[in-house]
# Entry
Amino acid sequence: MKHLVAPSILSADFANLQQDIEMINRSEADWVHVDIMDGLFVPNISFGFPVLSAVKRHTEKPLDVHLMIVEPDRYLAQFKDAGASNITVHFEACTHLHRTIQQIKELGCKAGVAINPHTPINHLYDIVDDIDLVCIMSVNPGFGGQKFIENTYRRIRELRILAQGRNDKLLIEIDGGVNHENSIDLLKAGANVLVAGNTVFSAKDPIASIRLLKDVSPF
Ligand code: DX5
Ligand code: ZN
# Structure
């Protein structure tokens, strides 16, 4: 399949969020990546339900919601109601990950698991059949504009091997420090969803930046 591009609105202009959402509507972006941070799981606080609902009112693209929060089970239904198409929880934040994944699916959302840079990929061994997406963090979560961690390529290859024959449709999303230089190697390693915050929103022409990320071909 052709890879997907998901601009992360963490780097958008929150005072002009509607404009940035409309820009994404006009672009070739596939999803809008929305980062929810609670100040506990990560050392930052982003935004919650009212902002997510406002984004939903203006977007024409599915919302890819990345929960960087403790005890996400408490809020899954509310995220669905606020407009989430995909809900991704952190491996490190879920004691009963299997149950959490089932709940996301019962809500009718795509279910994702995000994994921090220090967590071994093989910890996903017993959940990989049950999920639609793995979000490999290529920075430590919490902030936009950080430096890409190089061992991500090896981690993508490990995950593709782990999922082979068991979940060949698994979406492998890369989040953090994705840019126009590393995107091709990420796709070659087996990724098929690119999240980009800083690369898109600090560009003079964000629509062109999204197009460039879409045009990358690993072949
Ligand atoms: C980081 C977030 C990312 C962030 C990526 O915790 O999960 O989605 O917005 O931003 P860039 O692309 O600027 O690294
Ligand atoms: Zn994210």
About this structure: The chain has a mean pLDDT of 98.
